[in-house]
Design a protein that fits this description.
The complex is a heterodimer of chains A (116) and B (110). Chain A has no helices and eleven strands. With 116 residues, chain A is mostly beta strands. With 110 residues, chain B is mainly β. Chain B is built from no helices and eleven strands. In chain B, strands 2, 4, 5, 9, 10 and 11 form a six-stranded mixed β-sheet that branches. A five-stranded antiparallel β-sheet of chain B has the order 1-3-8-7-6, with no helix packed on it. The chains are: A mainly beta (116), B mainly beta (110).
Chain lengths: 116, 110
Amino acid sequence: SAVISQKPSRDICQRGTSLTIQCQVDSQVTMMFWYRQQPGQSLTLIATANQGSEATYESGFVIDKFPISRPNLTFSTLTVSNMSPEDSSIYLCSVVGQGALGTEAFFGQGTRLTVV
Amino acid sequence: QKEVEQNSGPLSVPEGAIASLNCTYSDRVSQSFFWYRQYSGKSPELIMSIYSNGDKEDGRFTAQLNKASQYVSLLIRDSQPSDSATYLCAVNVYNNDMRFGAGTRLTVKP
């Protein structure tokens, strides 16, 4: 299993500012995933963060808006830049590993972002 | 077409009834299928995984997979109020990234 520590757990930010979310994993993993979950919606993959290379972004998400760092195999950050109220959401980091039921996705506790 | 589609719900069942949740996926090469439960304000937690055609039972939960029809379902027997949550169907497409359905909100009424 993997334990992911994500912070901050929540924040209220002014529009036009940026917020950096951190995720620390208790084991080395090749890929880390960043998801957004808007109110009442499911998880949408933002990007896949690979150590030593540029993150891979999904359609609709760009590096200028959501820059990602992956300095080593246990840590990643996601920055939400130039925020607007539409960025209000829960952001989750995730890794895939072996759990009690086999391969599964493990999640951080989530960051609840409110942009005012 | 969305990669993973679920019956959107919400679904409401009385306590003790069977709750049936359905999911279809578009990528035929998908090999791994998962059901996650997410309580409000919490991160998703894995409750069932299934990899081969047929049924897989774990306690009150049964996952069913039909690869020919690209269909996955979750049955919850003897539903309890504590089962009230959003259930997410997920498919492992490639490179270990998970694609999630929109989720089905289940309410079990006492």
